[in-house]
Every structure is written in C-alpha cells, then in structure tokens.
Design a protein that fits this description.
39% of the residues lie in helices and 24% in strands. It contains seven helices and nine strands. Strand 3 and strand 4 form a beta hairpin. The two termini are 30 Å apart.
Length: 243
C-alpha cells in the first residue's frame, strides 16, 4: 500500500468517515484511522493502517506490520511517570523559553505543571485497576461528560444516550451550552480529544479528560467522533466495540 493522504472535507476534527476524502480509493480502516488521528491530533492505528496527522485537516495513512513511532498517549500508558514529568518540565521551562519562576505568570505555570503531574499519577493508578468492559465504558462516559463541562464552562443540560450499531455500543454524550456562540462550540469540539481541556484555552487543567483513553481506544478498536447539534449542543459519540 502506498501512503495515502486523507483530508477532512468540511471540518476538522471530522464528524465521521463521511467527512473524509482521499485521492485514491480507500478502505474503511484507512478512513477510520485518518479520522481518529485528526480527532485526537495524534497517531492512530486501526487494523493494519496507521494514520499520522500532518495538519488539522490532513493525515497520511500507511500500512505496516512494524510498530509505528510512539506518541504522547503511548508514554502515558507505559507508566514512566518520571520521564513524563521530566518532559513536561522541559517543555515548560526548557530551551530558554521561560525563566526561573519569579513573576505571577511563571508561578501560575508552575502550578499548572504540578496539576499536570498530579493528573499523570492518577492516570497511572487508574490504569492499574482491572476493569470490566461495562466499568470501562462508564468511566469513559464520565470523562467525556467532564471534558464537555471543562471546555464549555457551563452547561444548561447534559444527557447520555446508548444505542447499538453493527458490532458497536454507541454512547452519546450531549451537552447543551449556556450562552455559548457557534464559534465557542466549534472550538470546544476541536479540543475534545486533546489532553487537559480547560475553558481558559491554553492552560493545563487538573484532569486529562477523555484524552486519557486515546491509546486504549486504539487497542480495543473503539472510535470517538464529535459534532454539533441544534446550534447549542456539543455531542460526542463513543463507538465502543462489543466484546
């Protein structure tokens, strides 16, 4: 298989495979892998296809039996907390981008870094617990609801619906925003799959949110798609493959 470039036709992240286009014919695994890579903004593998996001709207898909390069999500699940903490520290203070914490802005940065490391510790503890598929689904739904709340700030209504779709159980989390504009909702939708969502925009929150499940979803053949409904609702569908 030659590398294929898959583009989001309308929006990024895409709402589903229907939003993806490719120059040559592509199988569903390629489209799913590309769509998930654009959704999570991280490398994503579906079957023998691995997609790597090149921009917000384009991903390259390759077929390979060899392990793909690791991503941030892989490092989380391996549990190397000391390495992650070091990388976060370097990212925050390294390369001369930020001096020693002497200003209020730098003090805030230190506090955010501490919350991120604390979140990593909780994540590693979570991953060590044996969970049934039902317990895992419940936690993923809860993290999705929490991610919506973190991104939107205030929600007027939040509901969860469940349906069956050809080998998947689809959990839909629908959050109605209170006073958010369409632009606000679009921005929130684009960040659902990113780590540490927060309404502040660029800061790091205390929770990893739905992003903690990125690698687990790859391994188990799950999918995640988000869309907007009725001009005031953010909807995230978790396509969890049936055991």
């Amino acid at each position: 298989m030659h590398p294929q470039f898959v583009h989001a036709r309308v929006e990024s992240p895409p709402r589903g495979v229907q939003d993806l286009t490719v120059d040559d014919a592509a199988d569903r695994d390629s489209l799913v892998a590309a769509g998930q890579a654009l959704t999570w903004r991280a490398r994503f593998t579906a079957g023998s296809r691995t997609a790597i996001p090149l921009s917000e709207t384009c991903a390259v898909v390759v077929e390979s039996e060899e392990p793909a390069p690791e991503g941030w999500n892989d490092r989380f699940v391996r549990g190397l907390a000391h390495r992650l903490a070091g990388e976060l520290t370097i990212a925050t203070f390294g390369a001369g981008e930020r001096p020693a914490p002497v200003s209020r802005e730098d003090a805030d940065c230190v506090e955010l870094l501490g919350s991120a490391i604390d979140g990593l510790g909780r994540l590693l503890a979570d991953l060590e617990d044996a969970q049934t598929p039902e317990e895992t689904a419940e936690r993923m739904v809860a993290d999705t609801a929490g991610t919506h709340l973190a991104l939107l700030g205030v929600v007027a209504d939040q509901r969860v619906a469940v349906r069956q779709e050809a080998g998947f159980t689809v959990h839909s989390v629908r959050s109605v925003a209170a006073g958010a504009t369409r632009a606000d909702l679009e921005r929130a939708r684009s960040r659902v799959g990113l780590p540490w969502p927060s309404q502040a925009g660029t800061s790091v929150g205390e929770e990893l949110g739905l992003a903690r499940w990125c690698t687990a979803m790859q391994v188990r053949g799950h999918q995640m798609w988000s869309s907007l409904q009725d001009d005031d609702a953010l909807v995230t569908d978790l396509w969890l493959r049936d055991p």
